[in-house]
Design goal:
Two copies of one chain form a homodimer. By secondary structure, the first copy, chain A, is mainly α. Chain A has helices spanning 2-17, 24-31, 36-42, 45-69, 74-90, 93-103, 109-135, 145-164, 176-195. The structure holds a DNA duplex.
DNA sequence: AAACGATTGAAACAGCTGTTAAAACTGTTT
DNA sequence: AAACAGTTTTAACAGCTGTTTCAATCGTTT
């Protein structure tokens, strides 16, 4: 019970403020527990985050392998995959922003690795599908697959920025739902033009 | 002189460690000056970063408007622009990583705005060119320009990650030069397929 | 009821952070 | 030589950080 209360409070604060700016005392207060219990149950503040990422990632990977193993065509699979990622990322914008921020910091390299692994598995699933499409000769072979995948995740990351930092790009506040369909459509057309021969 | 020494030392440390983890005392030591001089010359640690970004950005914007104002075709302009961005970003990978990291943190929103403005000007230059291409009817009109630009910058950002965090994506260490030409070629083809009608 | 290990609470640890007030020192102008 | 503004130094401020120590409490087992 205490463990869960700490995890919940920590997730909320890490999302809102980031990892480093969040203090263990804030977490303890929001969770309604004593400060010392964080170190008692998780060992350290870092391991608390590592545990959080571990438990949060599991579900997405299950749904991903469902798509990969289905009988759909490569293009259909790719589209389903895009929908899943967009859904996941938009409903946890702050979480993914925080993860990427943490992933790009030179501090805490060990924690970095622990967070990086789950994300790499996402990339690998997309890689499988593109290679399958090439094998079935529906996708062109003269594309840089690695950079294509990076393009997708790069845009998804940028989209989360646009979603709640519109002022930076001089745009009116846009409804997430609208942005989501825009992103999906954009990525679908982009990939179709780029991959399909 | 003191000012410049502080700026140089700060840039080096911010790049290597990030903004927050770098202490004013470290900056002062590396610059070989007294701690108090940072606040004397810049007012605060935050304004030091703001000033740094301001001065670093100026040159790029000059070269950008050169491209925009040239007589080249939209496609040529776009390619020149890509080359410029890739050049700038790859020769200052750590710097741009740091900037993006700082830009994605909910802390220090005022500083956020100050950093965001120069980056927005980059986007605007690219926007101009795409709109020009549409007006001259060499580019399709049914594209999401905003997301197209986000796609470019999103990939460039991802590329800097790949450049010195290859382990995350299970790749061998790649020479920056090779990666740069790969990125350039990838973006050129991607945009051509997506924009040109 | 006694004993036990697991969990919790209060308090303090040692160390760091950005910033600043005031004095000391510079080089130039009167 | 005196006055002056622009810099630099010293030293301290007030506050925060993650972590740990040790005693108190809890629920379960003997």
């Amino acid at each position: 019970m205490t463990r869960e209360k700490i995890l919940t409070a920590a997730k909320e604060l890490f999302q809102a403020k980031g990892f480093e700016p969040t203090t263990v005392r804030e977490i303890a207060t929001l969770a309604g527990v004593n400060v010392a219990l964080i170190n008692y149950h998780f060992g350290s503040k870092e391991q608390l985050l590592a545990q959080m990422v571990e438990e949060t990632t599991a579900h997405t990977l299950l749904r991903l392998s469902d798509i990969t193993k289905s009988g759909a065509s490569p293009i259909e699979k790719l589209n389903q995959m895009l929908e899943l990622f967009i859904e996941k990322i938009f409903s946890n914008k702050q979480y993914y922003q925080m993860i990427h921020r943490e992933l790009s910091t030179p501090q805490r390299p060990e924690l970095n690795d622990q967070i990086g692994k789950p994300l790499k598995r996402n990339r690998d699933e997309m890689l499988k599908i593109i290679e399958e499409g090439q094998k079935k000769k529906v996708f062109r072979k003269d594309v840089d697959i690695d950079l294509t995948i990076s393009t997708v995740f790069g845009l998804l990351y940028q989209a989360t920025h646009i979603a709640f930092k519109n002022k930076v790009y001089d745009k009116q506040l846009q409804d997430d739902a609208i942005l989501k369909t825009r992103v999906l459509k954009h990525l679908q057309e982009l990939l179709k033009n780029h991959l399909v021969r």
